[in-house]
């Protein structure tokens, strides 16, 4: 049967017969769509019994380092990053690569989400693979976990080193200084590690993953809880940024990198599509200026792709946007407006490695 030719006759209220009343049609349609929605969401966003989104952990967690016996030693030209431009987790790795000046030492390929294949695909074959899932299986035959970006790939052993962004950016910050243009830049200094880690944990739970907990919530209670936590943390950050240029003081750190990638996508996608619409980031006095401050760093701006974010979020998250319509807004030119935050770090010297 061709569904395009399927016709449903809706009776008028004045006719009698064995037709299905409009009220029942609506109820049936709602029931069918709800069941299909829950089925799709179970694949896209695993949940607990209360309907709260539970993000699966990354499974490949090897390290690059100079320790004796370590399979993955630092080297220029050996490692490769696979990233999606819309993905906030992958975006972190591009930012640290750019800030450290590692573009010539670590190559990059951009993958694209495919609603048809249900995963990331290569624009042209890589390592004989057409999809990221194939690359995972090339690295680890029989792999059955999630095939996510970013991927830090070792071209020498044809294996995935790591697929956890939080760990990849630490390695990019510290293990490639011999090959980095900005080798003295240290985004994770020893004396700030405890404070950075504290912020990272708080921001991951309530903000980085918090927006997904809002968008992927499958009950009202789960959504309410996630949304309240998200904006409570954003309010707290806004207060801290009144007197601090960056999260940990006067110097940019990995905590700022990890927060930025969510903030950049917030007004574009999370505010509307993920129902995080209590307040936009641009409406925060200090947090909005902080976002502009970071965006106006040349290295960071070069990694930001507004159109990819809109196309991939609205075009590929079918359960959240069944029509696939891409919004024309918002106007993000405000990111280029003055931020007036230089005075908060006057005299500061970036930490060195």
Automatic annotation (TrEMBL):
Glutathione binds at residues 120, 146-149, 164-165. The record marks 270, 313 as: Lowers pKa of active site Cys. GO terms for cellular component: cytoplasm. The active site is at 87 (nucleophile), 212 (proton donor/acceptor). It comes from the Bacteria. Residues 189-323 form the GST C-terminal domain. One of its GO terms (molecular function) is glutathione transferase activity. This is Glutathione S-transferase family protein.
